[in-house]
Amino acid sequence: MAIGHYDPSLLFPEPTYSDEAAQRAGESAGFQTRQSEPVPDVEPLRVDLGNVIVVARSDDFFSGQGVKAMRAVVSSLESLQQVSSVVWMDRAPPLNIFSLSQPLLPRGEASPERLADARKRALANPLVVGQLLSPDTRTMLLMVNLDWLFVQQDSDCTDRLRDAAGKAASKFPEVDISFQVTGQVPISISRSVSTRQNEIKYQVIGYSIALLTALVLFRGIASVIIVGLAPAFGVFWTLGLLHLLGFDDNPFNGVIVPILLCMVGFTDGVHMMVQIRRHRADGVSAVEAARRAIREVGLACWMTSLTTAIGFGSLMTARHEVVREFGYCCVIGVLLTFVSVITIIPLACASRFGRNVHAGVGKNLVDRNLSRISVIIDFVLDRCRVFSWIAIIGTAVLAVCALQMSPDEKLTSSMAANSEPVVALKHIDENFGGMMTAEVLVRWNSNVDSADGIIAEVLSEVGATLQDESLLGNPLSICNFIDALPGSGDASTRMSLLDLLPPPLKRAYYTPERSRAVVRFRMQDIGIAAYGPVFERVQTKLADLQTQYPNFKIQLTGGVVDRWENLYQIVVDLAISLGTASLIIFIVLAVVYRSLRLGLISIIPNVFPLALTGTLLWAYGQSLEIVSVCAFTVCLGIAVDDTIHFLTRYREEELKTEDRRIAIRRSFVGVGTALIMTTVVLIIGFSTALLSDARDHRIFAIMGILTIGSALFADLVFLPALLLRFGGSRKTAANGNGEHGA
Predict the structure, then answer these.
(1) How far is Cα 369 from Cα 372, in angstroms, rounded to an integer?
(2) Which of 416, 431, 554, 683 is the one with CA 20 to 30 A from 110?
(3) H-type helices in 688-741, by residue range?
(4) What is the DSSP string of 354-419?
């Protein structure tokens, strides 16, 4: 495992692939068009692409000093080594029948008339308005392309660009221009930096508070350290093995898997430690106390690990590779953590370091007040019928409400709302219709001539379809360029004018050698769910359009569309796995406990926390996101652990007495301390993430607190009532409850 952390290639060298194999892997079956002709060696010009977007905001762009300032800004940016080029409105290709180069912005001193004319021409240019200049002319986008050879650090892609632009503009004090940076690269950097900072910061805070809380509850530093060793070794072993197996690129493994293993390992470890401490307090030797704890708690720990592993194993049936890998990793991690709990804690307690682990037994806050909490158990058992039906009906209603949540995802959901890339992106969404782009790909059969006007006719129909959707911004195709050229008539009758367009511009939207053209449009970062109905309507209209033009294949495509389809599939896979996990847990518990009743009873306390949390999220208008489903998955493991420990102790006590009321009460006294202690520590640990400025972290923390807290409630209130009401025959129940027909 240590080699996995250090350098996995020492054991498993990375495979190499030939160019031929890579080419074969990239081939896919598609629409049959004419034999592809050689494509001219022309670099397509995309005005909607840039590694970094510098957002300039001012009311004076079309003033004499404003024009000079922006030219100075662009020159300053291009003088940086890491900048290969800057695409901005003055670099937009000319749209005239002679392809004469005519800058949109005047050079040198310009009269107000020339500046007003420049503004008018910019707003009439489809390559500029809504693409590089906002319709109100107050925002200008500079698309910066980077030379990665000279990018040495993150600031080269963010701060240095903004500072260079600001320094150049400061030489023109008459003009007030502000700059912000956004785009795929700054967003990725900001997300990565925020994740690293929050991960280290809140893990340190969370672990410190959790250890401090455990120290108060255990009243012994040795006990706290030994309990913490189990999940620590489990996480170390798991991550090392995942590195060896090549699963370290999975986005869930860096955060979700360690948290899951820490929780499962800590929960089982506390139960093991409580038993060892009690035996040591009774005068049993350290080695014998460890043996007894393994015999008494080992089965429950194995059960929790087995059910959790099988539940996560259901993810392996998912169609999405990321989810399948997450399932593999969870199974591996849970099993390794079980090995850690069952070996590290008993060995440490049997060693000289653990000779005083029993110090403070019976003196901690939970033990001293457990008798007071026992009043709740008596109250519940006296009214077991009422609480049982509340549990069953309430869980069913909450589950129905939780299922009303719809999947969603935002590009910046894991980032701070006040971070510079997020603020700048929001401004682009409001003024340009969005930063993200997608496209409609139009291909035609070999019997359609590439200069046929029917191509422009189809593209115009596609553009009109996109224009009807308010959330899709600024559709752009060769039809827009033809319409901008002098002359009258629609694009379908003027296809010959395509030859007058600059080749880099034409090739970005039209490739006759490959019988294809595209219509690109912008999208806002308002959540994929908002675009779901839009995409469905567009796809329906495109299908109808394709029926009208049988020689054409029309397809909605692009990264955002793929994200929509993949997101839905990921969330559906994860949601199905939750239901599958619940079913598997019921089957396993029924088989292990040899009781169909206990298997059915266990469903309620395991489903109730998830249903309650999901209902609260739905009530507050939240969507079902990957982070929320992962939180459900993690918390299900914790809820199952508590239920299994309670049921295992109940089965032991049930053999000692015929009175199930007494058996339930003894079970509460036996495992109640560990259940409450683990819940308190985990809730406090989750609470630290509420301080994070990342929305995803706060959602994960809120869901963790709600789910774990409600799981404790279900195990200490609903589970005892269900056991007394449905745990045996009516005669036994009546004898144990003191109620006729209980």
Answers:
(1) 5
(2) 431
(3) 695-713, 719-726, 730-737
(4) GTTTTTTTTTSHHHHHHHHHHHHHHHHHHTHHHHHHHHHHHHHHHHHHHTT--B---TTTTSBTTS
Question: What residues does 437 pair with on adjacent strands?
Answer: 522
User: By the 8 A CB rule, do 227 and 269 touch?
Assistant: yes
Tens of pLDDT along 532-554?
889 999 999 999 999 999 999 99
Buried residues in 314-325 as b, exposed as e (16+ CB within 10 A): bbeebebebbbb
Contacts of 699 (CB under 8 A, 6+ apart): 622, 625, 627, 628, 631
Q: What share of the chain is helix, strand, coil (3-state, %, to 5)?
A: 65, 10, 25
Q: What is the pLDDT of residues 78-125, one digit of tens each?
A: 999 999 999 999 888 777 655 555 677 887 678 888 888 889 988 888
* pLDDT score, position 386: 92
3 state DSSP class of 480? helix
pLDDT at 97: 54
Convert 615-642 to b/e letters by CB count within 10 Å (16 or more is b): bbbbeeebbbbbbbbbbbbbbbbbbbbb
Q: Specify the pLDDT at position 31.
A: 44
Strand-pairing partners, residue 553, are 443
pLDDT at 159: 92
- 146 with 52: CB under 8 angstroms? yes
Domains of the chain: 52-182 (3.30.70.1430), 188-412+565-737 (1.20.1640.10), 420-558 (3.30.70)
Please give the structure tokens belonging to residue 106. 């005047």
User: Tokens 């199905």 identify what position?
Assistant: 576
Tokens of 322: 């990321």
Q: Which stretches of the chain drop beneath a pLDDT of 50?
A: 15-33, 730-742
pLDDT value, residue 363? 58
Query: Which pLDDT does position 466 carry in this prediction?
Result: 93
- Is residue 407 within 8 A of residue 529, CB to CB? The reply is yes
Which phi and psi (to 5°) does residue 70 adopt? -70, -35
Q: How far apart are alpha carbons 607 and 395 in whole angstroms? A: 7
- Provide the pLDDT for residue 218: 64
How far is the C-alpha of 93 from the C-alpha of 130, rounded, in Å? Answer: 16
Q: What is the DSSP letter of 694?
A: B
**Per-residue model confidence (pLDDT) at position 27:** 38
**Which H/E stretch holds residue 556?**
strand 552-557
- CB count, 10 Å around CB of 491? 23
Model confidence over 247-267: pLDDT tens digits? 766 656 666 677 778 777 887
Residues shown for the chain = 742
The CA-atom distances, in angstroms, between 122 and each of 179, 429, 475, 498, 519 are: 21, 20, 17, 21, 21
Single-letter amino acid, residue 233: F
Classify residue 563 by burial, with Cβ atoms within 10 Å: 0-12, 13-18, 19+. middle
